[in-house]
Design brief:
Length: 284
Amino acid sequence: MNEIIKFENVGFKYVTDDEAADNVVISDLSLSIGKGSFVAVLGHNGSGKSTLAKLSNAILVPQKGKVTVNGMDTADESNKDSIRRTVGMVFQNPDNQIVATIVEDDVAFGPENLGVDPDEIRKRVDSALKSVGMYEYKDHEPHKLSGGQKQRVAIAGIIAMQTECIVLDEPTAMLDPRGRKEVMKTIKHLNKDMGITVVFITHYMDEAVQADRVIVMDDGTVAFDGKPKEVFRNTDKLKAIGLDVPQVTELSCLLRKDGIDIRADILNEEEFIEAFSKIAEVSE
Ligand SMILES: Nc1ncnc2c1ncn2[C@@H]1O[C@H](COP(=O)(O)OP(=O)(O)OP(=O)(O)O)[C@@H](O)[C@H]1O
Ligand SMILES: [Mg+2]
């Protein structure tokens, strides 16, 4: 099996008091997350990203269709523990995820709950803290750390549970630019060096372009799905569904509209400078 998470024609709505309300949040959604992949999920506010995340590890179960994790149906109550051991979640607010008063105890909390042997927990906590670059803070009080450091501790808590996959729901949204960079670096390390599958929900385009695949959600279904270069060249369509594109991509698009022959798939400043200097050379 090459996929770790699979959605098959999934439909989901929140049950509210207002029965007449049309509150379908996910409609007929099918997608697979490949093992070892690094997938970014984008979409405007309310497009269903967090719901998608919660459906991925059985916090929510669909009313229609099926979600499976390593082949296990999330709707089957008896699979819940195994699913939570396979897919870990990191949320937006670092303060809501801290459960202990010392960093290493916080990281140990997950594996303790899984009933892992204390010697093994010790090893896992040390190695998880090292892999997020927070080992030297193991005796610190989490609430005194910066936002980026807190998120790295939260990520270490998931690593210590040895889940195969981490779903991160806007983990950088409340961080300053430095914290965002730290967390991005950590996420890439987990994926590239440790082989952990990453599903990374963000509203920052410059972060999404770093993934191998970008899924764009719109009204509970998939609007675009592909490599960052394929997805972001749809500048106008992305804007129409309430998303920005990276600034350099938009600038290239405007230049193209003005008749300047610049590539449509530019995603970062380096690529822009390279492409633009070629044009400048030609016109000299
Ligand atoms: N617990 C809930 N009860 C009822 N409706 C909900 C609940 N949670 C979310 N919704 C609604 O479901 C829709 C999708 O919400 P969701 O949180 O999945 O979107 P999102 O893409 O994560 O948005 P954001 O970018 O704001 O985080 C929204 O219309 C939201 O108001
Ligand atoms: Mg959300």
